[in-house]
Amino acid sequence: MKSPQLGFVLALWLKSAASIEGSGYSNATIDVDVAIIGGGSGGIHSAIQLKDAGARVLVLEKKDQIGGHAETYINKETGVVNNIGVSVFEDTDVVKRYFARLGVPTSSVSASPPSTLYDFELGIPIPPPDEGAQQAILAAAKAYSQNVLSKYGWLDQGYFLPDPVPEELYMPIGDLAAKYNFTALLPIMARFNWHFGNQTKVPALYGIKDFGPDFLRSTFGQLIVSGTGNTRSLYDAALKELGSSVLLSTTILAVNRHSTGVTLLVSQNGMVKTIRAKKLLVAIPPTLQSLKSFDLSRSERALFSRFSSLGYFTGVARVPGWNSRSLANVGAFTPFHQPLIPGSRAFRATGTPDEFYFGVGFPTDQVADEDGKAVVRRQLATLAEAGAIPAAAGDAVTFSASSFHMPFNVRVGAADIKKGFYAELLALQGSRNTYWTGAAWAGHNSALVWKFNEGTIVPAIKEDLGLEHQLPLSWNSHLHLTPWMLTTISGVKH
C-alpha cells in the first residue's frame, strides 16, 4: 500500500505530467521513442528489433539482471553451468536469427527422456515405454498433426481466434485428444510444458499453443540450446548491445498515458527519474498486481482481472551420494499419467555428482519458496523409502539455488475463451500509445513470443513511429495479420 505522502506526490506528478510533455524540462528526464517495461524474453527481443530499426529504446527492468526466467546456477567447485529456467528452444528460423544477431552460438540436442521413471508420490517404479507404446506415441503425433495442427497451426503466430471461437478450442485438451485419437501424446505434451495444468480441464487452446507445429517437430527431432551451455549468454550479449538503454533495479512508480505519448515516474537505486516516450511496450505479465502502478482503463482492468496463473519452483539441490541419478515423475494411476500437482517434474543430474536439478509445479501462484522446498523434501523421502535414491535424502537435501517463476502460464478459462476474450485483449494493442507482449499474449515459449514480436508488435510500433513508409503486413483491428493468417482464420470451419 502506498503511503499517504507518496500518494500525494504521485498525484501531483500525474497532474503535471501532461504539461511536462513538450515543455523542454530535462532535469532527471529521459526522452525515448519506446519505453519497454520488462527485460525478459519479450522485452529484450523487441528492444533489439526496434533498436535495429532506428528507434531510441529504454528497457526498465526491476531485477538486477535481464532475461526473465532465463536463470543459471554455476557450481563454484566444478564450474558446471545449470540452466534452472529456460534451457531449450524450438528449432526454428526465428530462434536461429536471434542467436545469430547477438553472436551467440547454438547447438542441437535430442529430446530424450530420463531412463528411470517413478511415481514420485507413491514411490512406484514405472517401466519405460516399450516398442508398442512408442509406436502409439508416434501414431498419436501423426493424428494430432493431421487433424488438429492442420486446422490450428496458425496459433503459433498469436491468439488470433476466429469469431465465433470453434468449440474445439475451449473444450478440454483431453476431450480433443479422444476425439482425434492423440491421447497417447498427452503425457509427452505435459512433460515438455511444465507445469501445463490438469489436462482433463485445461482448454485445448492452450494445449495446441504449447505444442504447436514447430514444437512438435522439434520434440521429435532436434531442439536448440545455447552453444555455450548457458542460456544467459543470449542476454549477456543483448545487455552488451543495448548498454545504457537498459535500466536495471528499476521500480515503476507511476504510468501516465496521454494523447501525445507516455510519461513514467521510476525509481532506480534511490534516484527518481521521469521517462518520456512516444510509445510504451509492456512486456511483463498483465496481472493487476504487476500493473498496480498503471493508469489502467476500465476495460484493461476488467480484462486483466480475469487472468489466473500457476506457480513453478525450480533450482538445484544437493544430496550426498546422489551419484548423477536422473529420474522423471510419471503418474501411475492419473489420467494420461500426468504427475500430481503440487509435484515435481523430474530430478535430473546436473553434471556435479551430488547435485540435481528440480522443477515443482503448483496450481496457484500464491505460494512461497518454502512450499516448493517442502514438496521436494517430501518426494525425496518417498523415493528414498522405495530405494530409488540414497536413504534419508529428504532430510539430507540442501538447496544450492532456487527460484520461483510466477506468475507462470497466465490464462483464462473456457467460458472466457468462448466469449471472445482474446479478441478483446488483442484490441488493446496500440490503444493509449501502448503495446503489449509476452507469454500471456503469445504463449509460454520464447520462440512464440519472438514470432509475435516480429509478426505483430514490432511492425506496428515501427509504423506508429514512422520508421516504415509502408506496412509489410495487413492491418486489421489494430493487429498486424499476415495474408496467410487472415486466409487461414477465415477458412476455419466451426
**CATH first level of the largest domain:** Alpha Beta
Quaternary organisation: single chain
Estimate what percentage of residues fall within beta strands. Answer: 15-25%
- Spans of at least 5 consecutive residues whose pLDDT stays below 50 are 1-9, 11-27, 469-494
CATH superfamily of the largest domain: FAD/NAD(P)-binding domain
Give the number of DSSP strands: 20
Provide mean pLDDT, rounded: 89
Main sheet summary: 7 strands, mixed
Record the SSE blueprint:
Blueprint: H1 4-20, E1 29-37, H2 41-52, E2 57-60, E3 72-74, E4 81-83, H3 93-101, E5 106-109, E6 116-119, E7 124-126, H4 131-152, H5 173-180, H6 186-192, H7 204-210, H8 213-219, E8 223-226, H9 232-242, E9 246-247, E10 250-258, E11 261-268, E12 271-282, H10 298-304, E13 308-318, E14 327-329, E15 343-349, E16 355-362, H11 369-385, H12 393-396, E17 398-411, H13 414-418, H14 421-426, E18 434-436, H15 439-442, H16 446-465, E19 474-476, E20 479-481, H17 483-490
Parallel strand pairs: 1-2, 1-12, 2-9, 6-14, 12-18
Antiparallel strand pairs: 3-4, 5-8, 6-7, 10-11, 11-12, 13-16, 13-17, 14-15, 15-16, 19-20
Helix pairs in contact: 2-9, 2-16, 5-7
InterPro entries: FAD/NAD-bd_sf
Organism: Parathielavia appendiculata
Pfam family, one: NAD_binding_8
